[in-house]
TrEMBL record, chain A:
Domain of life: Bacteria
Family: Belongs to the CitD family.
GO molecular function: citrate (pro-3S)-lyase activity
InterPro entries, per database record: CitD, Mal_deCO2ase/Cit_lyase_ACP
Keywords: Cytoplasm, Lyase, Phosphoprotein
Main location: cytoplasm
UniProt-recorded name of the protein: Citrate lyase acyl carrier protein
Subcellular location: Cytoplasm
Function in brief: Covalent carrier of the coenzyme of citrate lyase.
Originating organism: Acetobacter sacchari
From TrEMBL, chain B:
E.C. number: 6.2.1.22
Name of the molecule in the record: [Citrate [pro-3S]-lyase] ligase
Molecular function GO terms recorded: [citrate (pro-3S)-lyase] ligase activity
Location of the N-acetyltransferase domain: 1-145
Swiss-Prot/TrEMBL catalytic activity: holo-[citrate lyase ACP] + acetate + ATP = acetyl-[citrate lyase ACP] + AMP + diphosphate
Length: 98, 350
C-alpha cells in the first residue's frame, strides 16, 4: 500500500490513540511515538505499529502516534484505518482476524 | 449525577463563524477571555438539551487560541473532544504542528491534549507545542550552520521592509563579531510577504562575508503575533511576549549556535519598543534560568536628516507613494522591489 497523503485516525481521549500517517518519499518508516505509558509499553507499542503497517504492506511513511493509554487492539485498528486513509483506499473491508 | 447527551460538536468558519460570533464572545467572557481577532476557525460544543455553547477552541493558522469549557462540563472530558477536533481540523488543513500560549496554571489541561511546554515561566505563561520532535529537528538543522569564534552575534528582525537601518545594525554587529546570525520573523503579520522580506534581507547584506541569514521558523516569534486575549493589560502583554521570545532564544537557539550576544536598535520614539528592549534584556541576561545568559547590545539607531530610519517610516512613505524620500533610507534592492510591489498592488486594486 502506497501512502500518498496525510491520513488520520483516533482521538486524544483517554484510552485512545491519535495516529497520523504521511508520505516519506520512499525512504522507509519513521515512527514518532508520544505516550503516557512510554516507559512501560513504549517498545510494545512500537512493535504493534510496525507489525500492523507491515500487514498493510506500508514500507515508506512517517507515522506519528500520540497514545493516551490505548489497548493493543485499539492501536492496531487506528493504525490500519489511518494507513487506508493515507493511501486513499475507500472501499476496503475491515475484518476481525480469525 | 444527572445524565445527559454528549454535547454536539461543530466546526465553524467563514460566514457561519460571523453568525455565532456574538454568542462566542459572550461565552468566552464568562471564562474571562476575549475573542482573538486572528482566529478564523472555531470548534464549538453545544449543549445537547438547550443548545447553548458549552465549550470552544479557536485556530489562528497553527496557533490554538480562545479555549474555554463551561464550568459544569469541566472534568467531563469535553475539552479532549474539542482538542481532538481542533488538531484534526488543523492537520487536515495542512499544518503538521500546533502551538499555544496559556496561563501557567492552565498548562495541565493542554498536557492532556498532548501538548508539551517548550517555555514555561512559573506563575505567568506557558508556550506549548503539539509536536516537540519538530523543535529538535529544527535545532539539528540549525546546528549545521554553527560557526566558531570568540564572539558570535545575532540579530532578529522583521524587516518589513529591509531598510538602511537594518543594514546599519547588522553591519555594526558584523564589525564587532566573528560571525553574525540573522533571523527573520516568519509570521505574516506584515505588509510585505515573508518570501520577499527574506529576499530583500539576503540582497541587502550579501556583501558582508561573516553574516548568515536564517530562514524564519516557528521558534523565532514576533511580538506582533503574540495573543493578547487572555491577558488584562498592555504591560502584562508586553512583558510576557518579550519573555517568551527571549527565553526561546536563550534556551534553544543561542546554545545551538554558540551565540553570545543579541543586537537591537535603540528605541527613542516608541515607548512600547523601548520597554521591550528592557524586558528582553531582563530575560536574556539577568533572569535566573538554566541556560547561559545572552548579552543584549543596543546600537544607536541610524538617522537620516533629523529622523530615525525605520520600516514604519518607509511604509508610511509608501502609502503616499513618496519614492524620492524612500530612496534616501533604503538600499537599491528594496527600492526597486517597492516600486514593483506598489504597481502590483495598484493592478490588483484596479
Amino acid at each position: 500500500m502506497k501512502i500518498i497523503k496525510k491520513g488520520m485516525a483516533g482521538t486524544l481521549e483517554s484510552s485512545d490513540v491519535l495516529v497520523v500517517i504521511s508520505p516519506n518519499n520512499d525512504i522507509g518508516l519513521k515512527l514518532v511515538l508520544q505516550s503516557k505509558v512510554e516507559k512501560q509499553f513504549g517498545s510494545a507499542i512500537r512493535m504493534c505499529v510496525k507489525n500492523t503497517l507491515a500487514m498493510c504492506g506500508v514500507s515508506d511513511a512517517v507515522i506519528e502516534v500520540r497514545d493516551q493509554g490505548a489497548l493493543e487492539c485499539v492501536i492496531k485498528a487506528r493504525v490500519e484505518a489511518a494507513a487506508y486513509r493515507a493511501a486513499g483506499e475507500t472501499n476496503s473491508r475491515f475484518e476481525v482476524p480469525s | 449525577m444527572i445524565t445527559r447527551g454528549d454535547p454536539r460538536i461543530d466546526v465553524v468558519d467563514g460566514e457561519r463563524l460571523e453568525s455565532v460570533r456574538p454568542q462566542l464572545e459572550a461565552f468566552l467572557s464568562t471564562n474571562h477571555l476575549k475573542l482573538d481577532s486572528g482566529v478564523n476557525t472555531f470548534v464549538v460544543a453545544y449543549d445537547h438539551g438547550d443548545g447553548r455553547i458549552v465549550g470552544c477552541a479557536g485556530l489562528d493558522r497553527n496557533i490554538v487560541k480562545c479555549v474555554g469549557v463551561d464550568e459544569s462540563f469541566r472534568g467531563s472530558g469535553l475539552s479532549l473532544k474539542i482538542g481532538t477536533e481542533v488538531v484534526k481540523f488543523g492537520l487536515g488543513d495542512g499544518y503538521d504542528d500546533f502551538f499555544l500560549y496559556t496561563k501557567y496554571e492552565n498548562s495541565r489541561l493542554f498536557r492532556g491534549w498532548g501538548f508539551s511546554p517548550i517555555i514555561e515561566i512559573p506563575e505567568q505563561v506557558s508556550f506549548m507545542e503539539f509536536n516537540p520532535a519538530r523543535l529538535s529537528s529544527y535545532l539539528a538543522k540549525l546546528s549545521l550552520e554553527k560557526k566558531s569564534g570568540s564572539r558570535i552575534g545575532s540579530v532578529v528582525m522583521n524587516a518589513n521592509p529591509f531598510t538602511n537601518g537594518h543594514r546599519y545594525l547588522v553591519e555594526q554587529a558584523s564589525k564587532e563579531c566573528d560571525w553574525v546570525h540573522v533571523f527573520l520573523v516568519k509570521e505574516n503579520a506584515s505588509l510585505i510577504p515573508y518570501d520577499d522580506r527574506l529576499m530583500l534581507v539576503r540582497a541587502g547584506i550579501s556583501d558582508l562575508p561573516n553574516v548568515i541569514v536564517h530562514a524564519g521558523s516557528n521558534y523565532i516569534i514576533s511580538r506582533a503575533t503574540f495573543p493578547q486575549y487572555f491577558l488584562k493589560n498592555a504591560a502584562e502583554i508586553n512583558e510576557q511576549a518579550s519573555a517568551v521570545d527571549a527565553l526561546l532564544f536563550r534556551k534553544y537557539i543561542a546554545p545551538t549556535l554558540d551565540i553570545d550576544v543579541r543586537y537591537v536598535g535603540t528605541e527613542p520614539i516608541d515607548k512600547t519598543t523601548a520597554m521591550y528592549n528592557r524586558v528582553l534584556m531582563k530575560y536574556l541576561y539577568t533572569y535566573p534560568y538554566d541556560s547561559r545568559p545572552i548579552k543584549l547590545k543596543e546600537i544607536k539607531r541610524l538617522e537620516y536628516g533629523d529622523t530615525i530610519v525605520s520600516a514604519t517610516a518607509v511604509r508610511a512613505l509608501l502609502s503616499k507613494r513618496n519614492f524620492d524620500e524612500i530612496k534616501k533610507i533604503v538600499p537599491e534592492t528594496t527600492l526597486s522591489f517597492l516600486r514593483n510591489f506598489d504597481t502590483l498592488r495598484e493592478d490588483r486594486a484596479a
